[in-house]
Write a structure and sequence with these properties.
By secondary structure, the protein is mainly β. The protein is built from 1 helix and 9 strands, in the order E-E-E-E-H-E-E-E-E-E.
Length: about 160
């Protein structure tokens, strides 16, 4: 079966994601929301008519597990200003013994809205840990490092 160098056809089957949400709305002034998301990354698969991907699919199954994501947020309107806050937690999608990819994200925001435009400012802080292996992991212990990534975003919108 001739194969063109640099080209290969395959399919990637991504995992099913289940999401549930609930919110409490307080008239026109505010809300609190809760989201739960479940994704089983061990069910990802590679497929092709010309290659079996047996080893690769087994590696995916052995390396990944289910991930849970929980998001809690709130918003309070003080027209024309809106205040927002939230927290999001991602569980580790890797099997035990593999690097931890869990993380927590905190967010704060403020919005200003008028008839013809709006301005939103948001701040996020992502907290996570990582084990770093400077050499072969069989020769040395890992170096544990804690991280905090901060970001600020602004959005300006015009209505016309």
């Amino acid at each position: 079966f001739p194969v063109t160098i640099g080209r290969f056809s395959y399919e990637l089957h991504t995992p099913l994601r289940l999401i549930g949400s609930i919110a409490l709305i307080f008239g026109q002034s505010g809300l609190i929301s809760l989201d739960y998301e479940h994704t089983d990354f061990s069910t990802m698969r590679l497929r092709s008519d010309t290659y079996s991907f047996i080893d690769e699919n087994q590696s995916i199954k052995d390396s990944f597990t289910s991930q849970q994501i929980i998001r809690i947020g709130g918003e309070y309107r003080l027209n024309p200003v809106t205040l927002r806050a939230g927290i999001m937690n991602y569980s580790n999608p890797f099997q035990d013994g593999i690097n931890d990819a869990s993380r927590t994200v905190f967010s704060l925001g403020v919005g200003f809205s008028q008839r013809n435009f709006f301005l939103d400012l948001g701040y996020t802080s992502t907290v996570f840990s990582e084990d770093f292996y400077p050499y072969d992991s069989n020769l040395v212990r890992s170096i544990s490092k804690n991280y905090q990534l901060n970001g600020i975003k602004a959005t300006l919108g015009l209505r016309f």
